[in-house]
């Protein structure tokens, strides 16, 4: 019998919760094991480079906080900061994920689909990343989406951490690590953009 997508989601959740509840995560390497099953990597980004005087302008897609209306392409100055400046801007947990390609613990963040309509923006530079309408419960304990709000706004790159070949996802506006994308998601794309909660902030639409 062919497993349905819902069966796979339930299997993921049961497996992760069993590992966490039984202490197996700590016994098997803790964060490294959690990253493995969530599809997270540890070398998707290098250390943050020092800020320079060079200003890079990007052409990204902009969206309204009022109702998610697509405002079209817009010129955005790429955010480049020193490690010290990033530490001032981000929490310790967010810095570890976004600037060191770390991974938050499964089920530790607000990963459930929000009740209100809205979009997710980068916690570092406010670039629009995902519409809540594309979010789904993947059973992994991390917020998952079947597509980004705009392909221009994210960068996908090869990640070979932990002896695997995966696709890391980062914010185009500031090069901050967000998570990974996999090909085991639901229709219509079949993709699973598995993100870290601390790397994003949710903005509820002001107009329904």
Report the order of strands and helices.
HHHEEHHEEEEEEEEE
Average pLDDT figure: 83
First-to-last CA distance:
42 Å
Radius of gyration: 17 Å
What global shape is seen? globular
The residue ranges in which pLDDT falls below 50 over 5 or more consecutive positions are: 22-53
How many helices? The count is: 5
* Strand percentage: 25-35%
Reading side by side through the largest sheet, how are the strands ordered?
A: 5-6-10-9-8-7
The biggest beta sheet reads: 6 strands, antiparallel
DSSP strand tally: 11
Summarize the helices and strands and which ones pair or pack.
Elements: H1 5-21, H2 24-27, H3 31-38, E1 57-63, E2 70-77, H4 83-89, H5 92-98, E3 118-122, E4 128-131, E5 135-136, E6 144-145, E7 154-159, E8 166-171, E9 177-182, E10 192-195, E11 200-204
Antiparallel strand pairs: 1-2, 3-4, 3-11, 5-6, 6-10, 7-8, 8-9, 9-10
Domain MsrB: 83-205
Keywords: Membrane, Oxidoreductase, Transmembrane, Transmembrane helix
Transmembrane segments: 15-38
Question: Would you kindly provide a written description of the structure presented here, covering whatever features stand out?
Answer:
With 208 residues, this protein is α+β, with helices and mostly antiparallel strands. 21% of the residues lie in helices and 26% in strands. The strands form three sheets. A six-stranded antiparallel β-sheet has the order 5-6-10-9-8-7, with no helix packed on it. It is globular and about 50 Å long. The model is unreliable at 22-53 (pLDDT under 50).
């Amino acid at each position: 019998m062919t497993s349905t997508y819902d069966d796979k989601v339930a299997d993921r959740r049961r497996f992760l919760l069993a590992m966490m509840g039984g202490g197996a995560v700590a016994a098997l390497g803790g964060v490294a094991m959690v990253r493995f099953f969530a599809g997270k990597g540890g070398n998707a980004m290098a250390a943050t480079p020092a800020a320079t005087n060079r200003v890079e302008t990007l052409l990204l897609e902009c969206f309204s906080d009022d109702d998610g209306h697509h405002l079209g392409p817009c010129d955005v100055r790429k955010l480049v900061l020193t490690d010290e400046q990033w530490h001032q801007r981000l929490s310790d947990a967010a810095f570890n994920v976004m600037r060191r390609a770390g991974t938050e613990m499964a089920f530790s963040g607000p990963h459930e689909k929000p009740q209100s309509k809205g979009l997710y923006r980068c916690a570092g530079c406010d670039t629009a990343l995902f519409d809540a309408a594309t979010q789904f419960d993947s059973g992994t304990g991390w917020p998952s989406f079947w597509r980004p709000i705009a392909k221009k706004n994210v960068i996908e790159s090869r990640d070979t951490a932990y002896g695997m070949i995966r696709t890391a996802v980062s914010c185009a506006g500031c090069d901050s690590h967000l998570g990974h994308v996999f090909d085991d998601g639901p229709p219509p794309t079949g993709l699973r953009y598995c993100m870290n909660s601390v790397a994003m902030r949710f903005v509820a639409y002001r107009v329904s």
